[in-house]
């Protein structure tokens, strides 16, 4: 939480030895620290331990996994992970990054379709629902404006 990813890795890696070798929370936090340090291969190596968990497709760890796969050039698997996170009325951070992935892949029409879906959902959300995801919905709005110019 403090942004000291080197220290986080130094604490989390030893925690995975022994009793906590398959602790989902530790693995997810370690994946985030690895991603923030640019250690994409390590993210890809560690995440399969938790991909079968019930809430994985809605977790930030899945987002770090998808982005790491893309960074390492595995576009097909990255897209599979982005698609798994594309849940209506949720996961706006992941869905924003999926839009960016589609744009980087020169798939403008698919990115526009996803942006339209997100912007349509925004119109049907209560103020309370929008609070948590405002930053990501606003980023989608910016991308939409850029594409329309």
State the main characteristics.
149 residues, 8 helices
Describe this structure in words.
With 149 residues, the chain is mainly α. The protein has eight helices and no strands. It has helices at residues 5-15, 24-36, 40-46, 60-71, 75-84, 92-104, 108-122, 127-148. Helix 1 runs antiparallel to helix 2, helix 2 (24-36) crosses helix 4 (60-71) and helix 4 runs antiparallel to helix 5. It is globular.
Residue ranges: pLDDT <50 for 5 or more in a row? Answer: none
Order of helices and strands: HHHHHHHH
Average pLDDT metric:
94
Tally the beta strands: 0
Total number of helices: 8
* N-to-C span: 38 Å
The description of the largest β-sheet is: none
Structural class: mainly alpha
General shape: globular
Strand content: under 5%
Rg, alpha carbons: 16 Å
Helix fraction? Answer: 55-70%
């Amino acid at each position: 939480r403090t942004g000291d990813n080197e220290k986080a890795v130094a604490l989390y890696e030893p925690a995975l030895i022994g009793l906590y070798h398959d602790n989902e929370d530790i693995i997810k936090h370690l994946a985030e620290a690895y991603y923030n340090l640019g250690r994409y291969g390590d993210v890809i190596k560690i995440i399969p331990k938790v991909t079968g968990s019930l809430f994985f497709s809605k977790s930030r760890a899945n987002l770090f996994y998808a982005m790491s796969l893309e960074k390492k050039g595995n576009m097909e698997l990255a897209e599979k992970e982005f698609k798994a996170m594309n849940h209506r009325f949720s996961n706006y951070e992941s869905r924003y990054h999926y839009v960016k992935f589609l744009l980087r892949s020169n798939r403008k029409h698919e990115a526009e379709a996803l942006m339209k879906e997100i912007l349509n959902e925004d119109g049907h959300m209560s103020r309370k629902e929008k609070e948590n995801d405002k930053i990501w919905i606003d980023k989608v709005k910016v991308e939409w404006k850029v594409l329309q110019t």
